[in-house]
């Protein structure tokens, strides 16, 4: 994809995200094209359909989340438990600061247009999380009698529900407190005994980068 074509795609993604936020999960291709200052035909050329565009916007959100809290995360803690607590802080901060997050984990998560994107991201999280727990078990950090696949599935589900509740609340809980509460849940699920000081969530950039 050439630089011009890539730039057009980026503008369309950014414009579509803004339209979805303003429309509370709804958009029209004409409005997106107008905001991006391109023809509606070009929007269809890049994404095929409105459903394809919505899916691409959600996928873009998850790519940035992955960079902020998972594969691209820059974690400074020296031990495993503190690194994972720091990761939770980055995960919470990203969702708190990204204006698209409430829609992605709320109404759009149930939209048929993004089902494949949601499934793919969740599968990657589950696989990576299970590998992380298996490594921690080999190092003697996490008890070896825990099923890593079942444990990570329960943890990811619980964390997501906690985050949905926080983002949808009339008054959001303090992100540092939410991070500490989520980590306490994780530490209990993993039967960790070592105590570490709370980690303040890292600041992340809002919206698309």
Automatic annotation (TrEMBL):
Originating species: Bradyrhizobium quebecense
UniProt keyword annotation of DNA-binding present: yes
Protein name: TetR/AcrR family transcriptional regulator
Pfam families assigned: TetR_N (PF00440)
Record keywords, A-Z: DNA-binding, Transcription, Transcription regulation
DNA-binding region coordinates: 28-47
GO MF assignments: DNA-binding transcription factor activity; transcription cis-regulatory region binding
Domain HTH tetR-type: residue ranges: 6-65
């Amino acid at each position: 994809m050439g630089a011009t074509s890539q730039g057009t795609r980026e503008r369309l993604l950014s414009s579509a995200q803004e339209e979805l936020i303003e429309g509370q999960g709804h958009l029209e291709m004409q409005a997106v094209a107008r905001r991006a200052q391109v023809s509606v035909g070009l929007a269809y050329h890049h994404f095929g359909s409105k459903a394809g565009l919505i899916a691409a916007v959600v996928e873009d959100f998850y790519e940035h989340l992955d960079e902020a809290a998972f594969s691209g995360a820059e974690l400074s803690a020296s031990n495993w438990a503190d690194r994972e607590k720091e990761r939770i802080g980055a995960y919470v901060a990203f969702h708190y600061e990204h204006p698209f997050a409430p829609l992605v984990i709320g109404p759009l998560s149930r939209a048929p247009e993004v089902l494949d994107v949601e499934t793919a991201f969740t599968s990657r999280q589950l696989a990576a999380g299970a590998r992380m727990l298996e490594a921690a078990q080999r190092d003697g950090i996490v008890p070896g009698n825990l099923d890593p696949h079942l444990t990570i599935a329960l943890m990811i589900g619980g964390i997501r529900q906690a985050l949905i509740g926080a983002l949808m609340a009339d008054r959001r809980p303090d992100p540092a407190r939410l991070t500490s509460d989520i980590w306490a849940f994780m530490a209990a699920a993993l039967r960790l005994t070592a105590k570490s000081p709370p980690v303040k969530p890292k600041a992340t950039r809002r919206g698309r980068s």
